[in-house]
Design a protein that fits this description.
By secondary structure, the chain is an alpha/beta fold. The chain is built from eight helices and seven strands, in the order βαβαβαβαβαβααβα.
Length: 196
């Protein structure tokens, strides 16, 4: 069973299209028999993702801190809800459960999660596919910045190319399913490139 960790916003964002994208992604995962692993929330894009996957007969596993359950943020109809104590434990458990990772539109929490898991891929701590669903051009500026990091030689072209990006759920899932990363060692630079 392929399990895909999905990071997404707990808000709906400024456009109805974001919710439509989250719902379409949940449905696409369910139709392929992919289990979604996510943050366990019932609101925003997180809720739209889970609801659409469940409605399409899919399995959804939520991982959520107990403090958020106490605030009644947890989704009550998931296939499985895993309570944890801390955000660090939440992210670690999601990473353990997942075979691949995708970020839908979201806020700073979503950004932090996908950049961290992409960093772990760069460092060889895992070799699981990582992707961005760049719906409505949401991640255009981030992609420009990552290209800038590559051009300024803070991110190697090889590591830069390991991030899967698509504007379409089906094509992104195709790419993630077909990806088999090999470890690419991160270079160790002991002096500036232009040093005399």
């Amino acid at each position: 069973m392929f399990q895909i960790c999905v990071y997404s916003g707990s808000s709906f964002g400024a456009s109805r299209q974001y919710a439509d994208v989250a719902s379409a992604f949940g449905t696409a995962c369910a139709r392929r028999g992919f289990t979604i692993v996510y943050g366990g929330g019932s609101v925003g894009l997180m809720g739209a993702l889970a609801n659409s996957a469940l409605a399409a007969g899919g399995k959804v596993i939520g991982v959520i801190p107990r403090s958020m359950i106490a605030e009644e943020r947890a989704h009550q109809r998931l296939t499985e809800l895993i309570p944890v104590e801390t955000m660090h434990e939440r992210k670690d458990r999601m990473a353990q459960l997942a075979d691949a990772f995708v970020a839908l539109p979201g806020g700073i929490g979503t950004l932090e999660e996908v950049i961290e898991i992409f960093t772990w891929l760069q460092l060889g701590l895992h070799l699981k596919p990582v992707g961005l669903l760049n719906a409505c051009g949401y991640y255009d500026l981030l992609l420009q910045f990552l290209a800038h990091m590559r051009d300024e030689q803070f991110l190697t072209p090889e590591h830069h190319s390991m991030l899967a990006v698509s504007t379409d759920a089906e094509s992104l899932l195709d790419r993630l399913s077909a990806t088999n990363h090999i470890q690419i060692p991160k270079p160790v630079c002991r002096a500036p490139i232009n040093a005399a």
